[in-house]
């Protein structure tokens, strides 16, 4: 009794019997095996490469003969000659089943392949992009049965790909006929299908088989910086990353200043919108140029941003975000054309996805962090803080997720700090102060030596020591507290009180001199009382936000803290805790998630499933509005002390001793008044 | 046993019982009675006015008491005081059922009211526009449950109008928040829903109740002229009509010249597209200004045009339409935004609908004629010709419809005629030639006297007699044939041959002098041999096209001829038949349909049902391509004679005698060579 050959696919394990002569691609499709193809089985795209395995497979109960899928045919030979086929590889659309066989589908031949992210803790992204390529052969026009070229293209997609209906981006109409004729009625179309129920739209087309790929930009549009990641929409690989300063800084460093600018200057919001769009255009062109990608291939862009940047990107006056009840114009995710945003670097019909906002002060950037960090899947109650000019704070575990934002201001980014500077070569990024001698030693960006190591001066001669960046100032303030130069209220002691001549008077207060090379024409780098106050304001806001979420959740402690944001990666957990930026947890439970918002943007760029997931998640998140919550003010005031006026830090105290000093002998002006910044 | 009161609506006859106190609008909705409302029953829009009828109604079996719907309430009194309510009218949302009642819904309170068109033969249009107004009250933002303003607007449409999902045109995002606040959270939105399965899109919104209406433009984009009809989308009434010359004339009078221009001049198609779009913008602004309508209220535009104009409007190079196989870039109906067409006079998100094209040479204008004239519903086999620079020809009855186009050239519009001119005051529009004396008498546009009537000179002194328009030249040639001045081959006889000194030599041929006021500084108006040839080419093309459809249908005669086109309205059926423009039918069976293409555009503007109908119809029409059909050439040659070389015209001969003259005594250059024009 003869039976059709058995075909077993790995890694899926899907199996079935097929008549002799069935192409492997056909067998895969019938079994629902995830095997890619752009050309639809014509042997030209090579996306369906498979690896037949030969010999005995007791596990599967089959023995695979050497000729189980026959020999390479002429199409495969030609492909191998011209483009190269790895040893053992076959084209799934050409290799035909002859006898029982085990066929491995390598990851690069899977449509929904998983892309492993860099950090070990990262979840892989399963590729499921909104835009995909389809190669079709279109019927030529027939005078006797006249239909439009577009309709025949639609018929080809229907007949060759089972796509019942498509539309064409109007901007492509003028070029359609030329492309069809140039490709001799064979074309590759890029179809964008943003949702399961949407009619797919042709957003690009090329003559013949398009082999230069498709790309997307994941853009993290921050108040201070704009970061973009150019991503291959086929493989999910990041081709290049680049960042520029947000040119809106000239209208105001923090978000509330920009809202004020729009309120005070008629048309100010239009000016700010134009500035940020121009910057995005420039960034897109730069990153394409740098990586050698034709901008016309960048067919998708995903934006994550805080609510004010969200509105300014969309051309919406942010004035409502500056006053209660902080109403967003729109909170849901948006699908737009690039031209809707006036972006000219990308094709007019390139598609834009903007993640949903969570609340008036909790934006698409926080949603992106939630998408990347998945607080709702955490077994332990996890606090996630994305530290920037505004801090996005999430608290969650499998039972519930809460979110808020807190106006930390730009101090953590080294702004509004007397010796502050951007994280760039020459900036102090780490510092230690000897508790005995009160002498500092430090490291600067661009050199891995400490400043008291031999050779430091030579190695830093080119850059010099120019200032303190965000992570440096956090360490400096924390080290000053640990060294007894700073009391719990945040006052810097005098030389007499501290016993070091590095504490010098500055008006009615004092500053701590880290470095004074001014006599030799170098920098004088100090931490002033004003710097301490700025950091206190920032960290109090951050801590108060976290505390408010904990209150709402009904807890006094959290199990884990994740520091997100580009800057979060550089913060020393110990110093952050000495400062009281974050609640007390075991030090090893404080981890960095890198640029979680940017990661979230990239996930949304690669996966429609992820878009649906975050759209559902944001609706379930408990939103906490810091601006109207009286307890926020209480928490803020209590958090002004370093590390805190009342909350205990038992875990921290197992690592450090906090000197019980007090320098309040004169009428210093208290803890400062809180200014709301966003 | 008491029963709920019986409510009977007229004219629908729908009836049902409702509890005492039920608002009439509620009862109407529950019964599916077509009763309009924009405000959703808040007593402010007055769209739901009804007329209760009182007394005995034996037909319905009820007696209606005087207080059957109670007295006017305060809302109605206020409305009457401020806006006026006709006697007997009530607001359906305020009047509540008290006892049995008969309620008439006047036409203006019906959503799907029928709009009777001017001509008695016209079918009424049932209003079913794609864009409609909805008044909603939107929830104010709530910090504790933050959602975007757009989402709350969507919720209001869902809760107050059962519209589950809407999108917002991106161009409206920047203004959304201001409108909501200006209207104190009460707004009117214009929702565009182009198809049953489409998610409606908000394309405009206004604070409070919007009472200035919505408008649409029906545009007949011809090769020579562009005509627009500004239409009220609520009532279907035409507010104003206006026309301008198509500025593309400077690139070529007929369509093939324009295609050639695009082929010969790189970027020529871009230039032509820009020209026509600018003209449409100017026309839209003019017609709005003239009728006092704010252009921002013109939210829909429907275009009908031939395939070349269709492509040039859409920015598509028409080169493919100039050569076999005459492939359209796209043939299906199109839904676009005004900005897709670069139209700036209208709102960016104003919606455009372009009717489907039938074939490479049979455009959306022919589809519009089919929509207006419904050949597929004709009981008698009907030939419809839309005469313009290109003639659209349809042949149909209830069994089948066929269509073709024929390149008549602009001669019928008075172009390429030596004394030809546009139809304007001073142009000869009708002419009679005495068969005995061969003396002409004529009428000019702007004066209803014939030229031999007393007072003609005085009455036409202001305009003068300046030339011959399209209908005039048809009559002139036909009258020359009837008076024996022209032989069947189209030759003009000499003075000797014809016996009138009005036939004067002109080179080797002759011309007939209608008027010579040149001695007094006036016009000299003649019909030259060249004019006759131009008219022969045009009429032969028209007749050959019609004959080709008849061949395909397998008939030698038709039952009825409909002359469409603005120009068709002015053609004398007798003279058209003498000329042999149209097949022989009883004279009373030749009727004019007015501007059928324009009517079709207006129908599509007012009715989604009509759009679906014509989209289905064009797929069923048998397309006949004149350019490749050998019989077209045969028919063309045979149709060169006046009226025809071989086809009999028995009906015509019951009205006129055709003199059997022949002037071919010298080597005149035959019937001319046919040049293809489109």
Automatic annotation (TrEMBL), chains A, B:
Q: What molecular function terms (GO) are annotated for this protein?
A: iron-sulfur cluster binding
* PROSITE patterns with a match to the protein in the record: 2FE2S_FER_2
Q: Which Pfam families match?
A: RACo_C_ter, RACo_linker, Raco_middle
Q: Origin organism of this chain?
A: Sagittula salina
Please give the name of this protein.
DUF4445 domain-containing protein
Q: Which residues form the 2Fe-2S ferredoxin-type domain?
A: 5-109
Q: Which SUPFAM superfamilies match?
A: 2Fe-2S ferredoxin-like (SSF54292)
| Gene3D superfamilies membership | 3.10.20.30, 3.10.20.880, Domain of unknown function (DUF4445) (3.30.420.480)
């Amino acid at each position: 009794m003869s039976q059709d050959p058995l075909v077993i696919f790995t890694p899926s394990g899907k199996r079935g019997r097929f008549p002799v002569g069935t192409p492997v691609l056909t067998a895969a499709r019938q079994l629902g095996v995830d095997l890619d193809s752009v050309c639809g089985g014509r042997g030209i795209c090579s996306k369906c490469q498979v690896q037949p395995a030969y010999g005995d497979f007791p596990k599967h109960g089959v023995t695979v003969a050497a000729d189980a899928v026959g020999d390479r045919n002429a199409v495969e030979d030609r492909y191998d000659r011209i483009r190269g086929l790895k040893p053992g590889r076959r084209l799934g659309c050409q290799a035909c089943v002859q006898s029982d066989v085990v066929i491995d589908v390598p990851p690069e031949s899977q449509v929904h392949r998983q892309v492993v992210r860099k950090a070990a803790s990262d979840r892989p992204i399963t590729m499921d992009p909104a835009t995909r390529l389809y190669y079709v052969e279109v019927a030529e026009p027939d005078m006797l049965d006249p239909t439009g070229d577009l309709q025949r293209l639609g018929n080809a997609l229907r007949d060759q790909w089972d796509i019942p209906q498509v539309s064409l981006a109007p901007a492509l109409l003028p070029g359609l006929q030329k492309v069809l004729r140039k490709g001799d009625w064979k074309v590759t179309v890029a179809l964008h299908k943003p949702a399961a129920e949407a009619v797919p739209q042709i957003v690009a087309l090329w003559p013949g088989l398009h082999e230069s790929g498709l790309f997307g930009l994941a853009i993290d549009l921050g108040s201070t910086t704009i970061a973009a990641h150019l991503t291959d929409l086929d493989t999910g690989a990041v081709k290049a990353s680049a960042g520029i300063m947000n040119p809106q800084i000239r209208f105001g460093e923090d978000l509330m200043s920009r809202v004020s600018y729009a309120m005070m200057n008629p048309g100010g919001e239009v000016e700010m919108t134009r500035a940020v769009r121009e910057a995005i255009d420039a960034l897109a062109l730069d990153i394409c140029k740098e990586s050698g990608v034709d901008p016309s291939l960048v067919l998708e862009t995903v934006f994550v941003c805080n609510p004010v940047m969200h509105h300014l990107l969309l051309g919406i006056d942010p004035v409502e975000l500056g006053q209660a009840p902080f109403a967003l114009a729109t909170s849901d995710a948006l699908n737009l054309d690039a031209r809707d945003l006036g972006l000219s670097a990308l094709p007019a019909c390139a598609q834009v996805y903007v993640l949903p906002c969570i609340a008036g002060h909790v934006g698409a950037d926080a949603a992106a962090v939630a998408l990347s960090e998945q607080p709702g899947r955490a077994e332990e109650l996890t606090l996630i803080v994305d530290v920037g000019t505004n801090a996005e704070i999430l608290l969650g575990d499998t039972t519930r997720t809460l979110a808020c934002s807190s106006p930390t201001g730009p101090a953590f980014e080294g702004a509004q700090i007397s010796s502050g500077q951007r994280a760039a070569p020459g900036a102090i990024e780490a510092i230690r102060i000897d508790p005995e001698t009160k002498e500092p030693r430090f490291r600067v960006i661009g050199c891995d030596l400490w400043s008291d190591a031999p050779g430091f001066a030579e190695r830093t001669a080119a850059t010099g020591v120019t200032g303190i960046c965000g992570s440096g100032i956090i360490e400096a303030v924390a080290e000053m507290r640990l060294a007894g130069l700073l009391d719990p209220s945040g006052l810097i002691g005098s030389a007499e009180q501290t016993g070091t001549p590095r504490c010098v008077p500055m008006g009615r207060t004092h500053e701590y001199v880290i470095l004074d090379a001014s006599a030799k024409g170098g920098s004088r780098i100090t931490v002033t009382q004003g710097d301490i106050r700025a950091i206190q304001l920032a960290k109090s806001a951050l801590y108060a936000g976290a505390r408010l979420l904990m209150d709402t959740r009904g807890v006094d402690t959290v199990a884990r803290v994740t520091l997100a944001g580009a800057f979060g990666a550089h913060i020393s957990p110990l110093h952050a805790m000495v400062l009281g930026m974050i609640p007390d947890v075991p030090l090893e439970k404080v981890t960095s998630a890198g640029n979680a918002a940017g990661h979230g943007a990239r996930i949304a760029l690669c996966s429609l499933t992820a878009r649906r997931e975050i759209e559902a998640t944001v609706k379930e998140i408990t939103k906490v509005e810091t601006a109207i919550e009286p307890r926020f003010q209480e928490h803020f005031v209590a958090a002004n002390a370093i590390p805190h006026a009342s909350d205990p830090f038992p875990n921290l105290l197992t690592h450090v001793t906090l000197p019980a000093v007090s320098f309040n002998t004169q009428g210093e002006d208290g803890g400062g008044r809180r200014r709301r910044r966003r």
